Amino acid sequence: MAGDNDTTRRLVLLRHAKSDWPDVPDHDRPLAKRGRKDAPVIGRWLRGHGYVPEVVVCSTARRTRQTWDLVAREVDGSPSVHFEPRAYAASAQTLLYLARELPGRCRTALLIGHNPGTEDLANSLADVALRFPTAAVAVFELDGDWPDLAPGQARLLDFTMPAELTA
C-alpha cells in the first residue's frame, strides 16, 4: 500500500518487437530475427533505468508474448503477468481502460501492445508526438491512482528505441 506522500505510478508502454510476415493469421505472427535481437536490448534498458514492472499486461498475440519472454529474461524481479485478449490490436481508449484497471498496489506496470493504439495512447497521455517503431518504449509518471489516468494527465519520463541503444 502506498504511503500518503507517495502516490506516484509509472506506466511503461512497449510496442512489440519487429515481427515476421509468414503466411499465418495476424495473431500468430512470430518475431523476426531483428525482433529477437531488439527485445533483450529493451529489457536491459528497462532494468538499467530502474523501470522494472510489478505487473505486466500483454496482448495475447504471439509476437507480443515472444517480446515479453525476451524482455523478461533481462529484467530483475518476477512481475505478475496477464495475457489480455483486449490488448490485441486495441485502440488507445481500450489500452487506457486496461491501465485504469491495474491493481492499486502496483507502482510500476508494463503494457505490451501494438500500433497504432500504443503510439496513440503514449501521445495522448502526456500531449507529446512520439513515433513508436517496433520495440519502442515510453515511460510515464502519474500522480494518483490508476483509475485517475487520463489524456494529458501523465508526464513523459523516458523514451527509447533499439536503434538508439545499438547505434
Summarize the structure in words.
With 167 residues, this protein is of the alpha/beta class. It has one domain: Rossmann fold (3-Layer(aba) Sandwich). The protein contains five helices and six strands, in the order E-H-E-H-E-H-E-H-E-E-H. The protein has helices at residues 33-48, 62-72, 92-100, 117-125, 162-165, and strands spanning 8-15, 55-59, 80-84, 108-113, 137-143, 155-160. It has a six-stranded mixed sheet, with helices on both faces. Helix 3 packs across helix 4. The radius of gyration is 15 Å and the shape is globular. The protein starts with 7 loop residues before the first strand and ends with a helix. Residues 1-5 have low confidence and may be disordered.
Task: Provide the fold topology.
Blueprint: E1 8-15, H1 33-48, E2 55-59, H2 62-72, E3 80-84, H3 92-100, E4 108-113, H4 117-125, E5 137-143, E6 155-160, H5 162-165
Parallel strand pairs: 1-4, 2-3, 2-4
Antiparallel strand pairs: 1-5, 5-6
Helix pairs in contact: 1-2, 3-4
